[in-house]
Structure formats: structure tokens, C-alpha cells
Amino acid sequence: MVMKLVLKVNDLHDPKSKRKALKTVSSIEGVDSLAVDKEKKTLTVVGNIVVYNVVKKLRKLMNVDIEAAGPNKEKNEEIPITYYYNSDYYPYHWPSFYTK
């Protein structure tokens, strides 16, 4: 599920701390987009993320509070179609979706 997380980061006062925060959060698997508002001192993370993992990583670097967390209503989530090929069922023939 695509989540939207808004974090209050009190240590966003210089470019170095902003760069550290963005680098840390962007390394987390499933992050689609990041946004920083220096006036409000907030960091917005959107993606297929676990809120606990994001907060845990950022709290190792700086003081972080959760302002809002929930499903992202702006983005419609599409479920990708995945085709599996199991050679046990088709030992000598390709499945029908490969032959078109």
C-alpha cells in the first residue's frame, strides 16, 4: 500500500543536515518521492514504505516526530500483473502467453 508520511524534523537548519536526512530516507526500499519544507521543518515521504523503518533510521541521526501518517489518497495504486513459469508443469512447451 502506498503510504504518505509527514515528519517534523527539528534539525533541518543547514544544508548538511538536509542532505543527511534525504540520503538516509532515499536509501530505504520502496520510497517513491521525498519533499522537504524548510519553513515548516517537515519531511514528506511517499511510497510503499513501513513507517517504523523510516522513523527508526532518521532517529539515529536527528530528532524526528511524526505529524501525519496514512495511505496516500493522491496516487491510485496499480497492481502489476506477474506471470510465473514453472518448468514442472510445462517441461517441453512454453506457456500460452509466451506464444502470442
TrEMBL record:
Source organism superkingdom: Eukaryota
UniProt name for this protein: Uncharacterized protein
Organism: Melastoma candidum
